[in-house]
Structure formats: C-alpha cells, structure tokens
Amino acid sequence: MALDVASRCVANLRRVDARRRFPRRRAVASSSARDLLDAIAREADDDAIRARVDELTETFELDRAFGGDGDAVAAALHGTWRLAHASKSAFDPRAPLGRRTDATTPGLEAAFATLFDDANASGSGSGSANASGSSSPIQRAVLSKLSDGGFAVRQGVRLRGEARKRRVDQAVCFGDGYGWFRLSANARLDAREGRIDYGFDLAYVDLKKPIAVRVPYPVPFRLLGKEAMGYLTCDYVGDGVRVCTGNKGTTFVFVKEDDDALPYANEFYD
C-alpha cells in the first residue's frame, strides 16, 4: 500500500538523519521531506499535503543542487519509484481527455476543444504557460484507488546510456501477483530545466493469474503524434523522495524503491 511505503520512507529518513551530519540546507530539506511523508502516511487532507509539497519544493533549485551536471541529474532520477501521492483535479466536461497546462490541444483533444469552444485551448501549437490543467479519465480512475491497497503504481526511470534506451515507464501492479499494466515511453532529459520529455510507444497488460497472458494495449501511439507526448518536471529530488509535475498539472510524490520492485526490472534496466 502507498501508506506503508510512505511510513517506511519516513523511518529511513530518520535513520539517515541519525547517521549523517547534513549542512543546514540539506537538513531543512530532509526535515521537509519527512514532514511531507508523515502527512501522506496519516492521510492528511489535500490542502495540508499541498502545503508540505510547497514547503519542500519552494527552496529547491536544480542548478544549485547539481551544478548543471546532466549525469548527476540523471543519476538522481534513475531507478524505481513508487507513487505515494498525486494531486487531484476535477473532471472538466469541456476537456474530457484532460487539459494541458501549456494550453496545447493535439489530436482528439483539439476536437473536443473545438466542440466546446474552449477559450483555454490554442490548437496544437504552443499556448499559454499558465492554463489550468486537468488529468485524463484513466489517470483519475487509477489515482482514485491509490490508497485502497489493491494495486501499486511504480515508475521506472532510466535516463543514462544510449539515447535509444532512455525510458520512463509507468507500471500499475495488481495485488497478490496478478500481474501489471505497463505504459512505456521513450524519454529525453533536459538537465538544465530538470524536465523529462517523453513519448509513449509501448503498452500492454501482463496477467499472471488465473492464466498467464500478455494483452497488447489497443492504442496506435505512432498515429497519435503529439497526443502521445508529455513531460514531467523535477520539482524536488533527494532523501529518497521525488516530487514532479506533469504536463496536465498533476503533482506526484514518489518514494524510492529497489530497482527490482519494478516487475520487469531485468528488461528495463538490462
């Protein structure tokens, strides 16, 4: 369960504090990360968690933390991360597939924007950077069940090595070994901006029980073009915690796990 992971990460942070002497800024960040995970573990309300996220991220500067070293940024983001919390957004009937924060509307998103004469949309090109975002129906459905314990959402990040092998994956792991849903994307890191740009190109459901079968996801990613693309910012990374925001405005809080917690780790990490 997400709450169990958050509680374990809080305990790990306390052990790290006991073993190491941090500079003042690092100690403050570590304390803020612990406060955030404490709030998630006790199921605090969204406003309280948002305040803890803001406290953690408002003083974090990627360039100051890594000095513009792209390899160091990639190393910090690398690995398997379990989703502990995601901000919520209400369903917007004018943008049933979700709305991007840059107000672009590629593919089918443009059709809905035209249908509803959405003033926040600006076609497939660049739009306003301050548009109000909203998540997709699938994302809302998955995240609404995050704390129920029936499944876990893990993200595999690999941004080092050959460009063609750099990827970011989402794996929805079904409980009791029933299998997983994999949504995989090629990825590129903008180290200076701390942003992962990605494009989905592979998805399938891998069931293990009651029978072992792999079912392809019936979405032609190559035909979707920009609609299959997105990005994740790096708002904070450190102390086994990562906070990022997606192109539809959702803020995610991840906690670090062992690489092999990703069910297909051998394939993903070679």
What does this structure look like?
- This protein has 270 residues and is of the alpha+beta class.
- The chain has helices at 2-19, 24-41, 46-57, 62-66, 70-77, 108-115, 137-144, 221-224, 265-269; strands at residues 79-86, 151-158, 167-174, 179-190, 195-207, 213-216, 229-233, 236-238, 241-245, 251-257.
- The protein has one domain (2-89, 135-269): Lipocalin (Beta Barrel).
- Helices cover 32% and strands 27% of the residues.
- Strands 1, 2, 3, 4, 5, 6, 7, 8, 9 and 10 form a 10-stranded antiparallel beta sheet that branches.
- A hairpin with a 4-residue loop joins β4 and β5 (195-207).
- The longest helix is centred in the N-terminal third of the chain and has 18 residues, at 2-19.
- It is globular and about 50 Å long.
- 34% of the residues are buried.
- This is Plastid lipid-associated protein/fibrillin conserved domain-containing protein.
- It comes from Ostreococcus lucimarinus (strain CCE9901).
